[in-house]
Amino acid sequence: MPRKQHLTTSQRKELRRKENQYIEELNTRTQEFQNPKATYFQDLPLSNAVLRGLKDASYVKLTDIQRDSIPVSSKGNDVLAAAKTGSGKTLAFLVPVLEKLYRERWTEYDGVGALIISPTRELAMQIYEVLVKIGTHCSFSAGLVIGGKDVKFESERISKINILIGTPGRILQHMDQAVGLNTDNLQILVLDEADRCLDMGFQKTLDAIVGNLPASRQTLLFSATQSQSLNDLARLSLTDYKTVGKPANVGGSEPETPDTLQQYYIVVELADKLDTLFSFIKTHLKCKMIVFFSSSKQVHFAYETFRKLQPGISLMHLHGRQKQRARTETLDKFSRAQQVCLIATDVVSRGIDFPAVDWVIQVDCPENVDTYIHRAGRSARYGKQGKSLVMLTPQENEAFLQRLKARKIEPSMLNIKQSKKKSIKPQLQSLLFQDPELKYLGQKAFISYIRSIYIQKDQEVFKFDQLPTEEFAYSLGLPGAPRIKLKGMGAIERSKDLKNAPRQLLKLNKANDNGELEDKPKEGKTKFDKMFERKNQTVLSDHYLNITKSQGQADEDDGDFLSLKRGDHQLREEDLPPLVAPQSKRSIRKALSKKASLASKGNATKMVFDDEGQARPVYELEDEQQFRERGDAKSQKKEFLTKEAEVMAQKDIEDKQLAKEKKQEKKRKQLEALRREMEEDDSYYSEDEEPAVVLGTGNFSDDLDEQSGNEDEGAEGESQEQDEQESESEEPPRKKHTADKEQKHKKDDNVMEVEEPETLEDLESLTTRLLNQ
Length: 773
Description:
Among the domains are: about 35-140 and about 155-245, P-loop containing nucleotide triphosphate hydrolases (Rossmann fold, 3-Layer(aba) Sandwich); about 260-475, Rossmann fold, CATH 3.40.50. The chain has 29 helices and 18 strands. Helix 4 (about 90-105) crosses helix 5 (about 120-135), helix 16 (about 425-435) packs across helix 17 and helix 23 (about 585-590) packs across helix 24. About 30% of the residues are buried.
C-alpha cells in the first residue's frame, strides 16, 4: 500500500484557503439562484460531496417538492412544505441539512448541528438509511435514537453525533439524561410529518424539546398534509417562513393524492367486513397489499385468525405494541417480498416507502381525510401505479365521501360479486370455541373498535349510537357482545398523553421529594379479578364472577349459593351514626383518609392497662430528671449488666437441670421398653445354656449390640414368670426371644426371684447384686 503523504503547513493552509473560497462561491450561487425549471440535482447550487453522494445512490432527477424547497432551504429560510405522498420529501430536507453543515464547516467536535424528529420509529429508520446513502462523501457523523433500543449504548456515543435522528420521546430522554448531548449550537431543526408531531399526542414532549433549542436555528416542516395553525407555528418559533407546495386545509384545484393512484370505495355492513376482506385476499393472491385497521388489537386478531384459515398468501402483521426487533424484521421482509399481505395499524401509514405496493385496503374508516391520504399514499409512489380501497358502512358512507370531495378526492364505487364472496363466520366461531386465547383476542378486538368509534370527534361520520354491536360480535365469532366500560373524554386525553410520554419521565413524576419512587397501591380490581375476567371461558371464572358481583346486579332467581350483599366495603356517610356523621367534605375526607387523620393526631400508639385500670403506652420514655435520680449512666449500666448476668446464670442452671431430667427420663423409657421385651408368660431361657441377665447401658443401640454379642457367645436367656399384678394389667402380650418359638422350654430351678425394679436406683442395685454372685 502506498504511504500516506503528510501535508506541510503551507499545503494545509492552501487547501483551507481554496475550500473557503469554494464555500463563498457556493453561497453566492445559492443566493443568486433563479431557475424554477431545474430538472436534475446538478442544476442546483450544491456542493460536490453532496452531488457525488446523490449520484452514487441513483438520485438524479428532481421532483416538484425538491425543486421548490431545496433552493429556499439552502438560503437559510424557515420552510413550511407540503406535497403529495411519495413525492420525495425526505431528500427535500436531507440535502439542505448536509449543505448547511458543510457550509458551516461543521466537525465532530462541534456537537449536534441538525436535529430531525419523526413521529414513528419506522420513519426515523428510513430517514437514517437514506441519509447514510447520500452522505457517504461527507465527513459528518449521524445517529439514530428510537424507542426499543439500548439507551446506554446510545448515550455513550451521542456526544460525537452531528446529525441526530429520532422520535420525540427518546430525544427528550437523552436531553434529560445524556451528559454529552449539547444542542446549544444547533443549526437546523427538521420535523417530518409535522402535523402528526404537532398534535396532542406529542405536544408536551415537543414543547420540552424546543425549549432546549436555540431560537436562532433554522426550522423545516414537511408533511403530506400540513397544518397552518398560528399556535402550532408559534410554538416552534416559526414566524418568518416560506410556504412551499400546497398545504392542507387550503383550497386547491388538484387533489392531494398522486395522479397515478386509482381510488375505490365499497359500502359494506360492519358485520360483513371480515368476510369481504378475506374474499378480497383470496381473489388477489398475486398482489402485494397493505391492510389497515384502527387498533393493534384488531390487527392481532385478524392476523391470527386469517393465519389459521390460510387464504393462500403470506401474511405479516405490524403494530406499535410489538418489540422493535420484530417490527424491523417485518419491515425488511415486506419490502423485499412481492406477493404478501401486511396487516397493520397507522404506525406505517406515514412516510414509509414500501416498493411496488399494489393495493392499500382501509378496513376501518379513517378518522379524517388526512389519515386517508397518508394510508392511500403507501401505494403509487414516485409516479408508479397503485390502487386504494376503503370500506365504508352505510352510516359512514355519505358524510365521509363529502369530506373527501371537499379535498378534491372522488373515489369510484366498486360492487361486490356475491359469487366471489365467502363467509368465514362459521369458521371463526369454531376457532374461538376451540381456542380460548383466540376468543380473548376477539373480545379485545371488539372492545378496541367500539372505543375507537366512541372517541371520534366527527360525530356526523362516526355514529356511535347506531353501531350493530351484536351483529359485529357475531361476525368475529363471539357468542355475544362483551360488556364495555367507556371512559370520559378527559380520561381518554390523559391516557393518550401517558401513552406517548417517555417511561423515564413518568418514573420521575412519580418520585417524591427525596427522589425515591413511591409505590402507591392501586385502587380497583385486583390481579385475580383481571385474570378471571380475561380468562372467562372456563367454569371457574363464571363461578368467580357470580361470587364477586354485587347483589344489586345479580338476578333474584339465579339461585347462586353465595352472593355479596355489598361489594365496595367503603365507609360512607350514611353508614356513620347520626351523632358522629361529618358535616363537611373536609371532615369526610379526614375521616376516610388514614393519612389525613395521622396529620392531626400523630401516629397511632398501642396501649396497655395497668393494675389501676389506667391506659398507658407499651413503651414509655422517662424524663432526664428521673434518669439522674437513679445514678449516673455508668453505674446504671454496670448494675443492669450485673443483674442480667445473674438472671442468665440462674436460667443456665435451670436449663441444665431440665436437660439432665430429660436425659434420665429418656434412659428410663429405653430400659423399660427393653425389660418389657424380655418378659414372657413362661420362662425366658435358651435351650442348653444357663440363664443370664441382659443389662442396659443407657443407649438403646448399645443394648442391642450387647444383646446380640451375648447371643453369639452362647449365653442363655432367662425371664421371670409374671405375677398376678402383671397378669391383671392391660399390657399387650410380650415378645418371645427364643431360638425356636414353637419348642416348649422346660423350667429351670436355678432362678433368682427379685422384686420388679420400679426406679433407676432399683435397676442399679439389681445389677450390683447380680455381678457380685
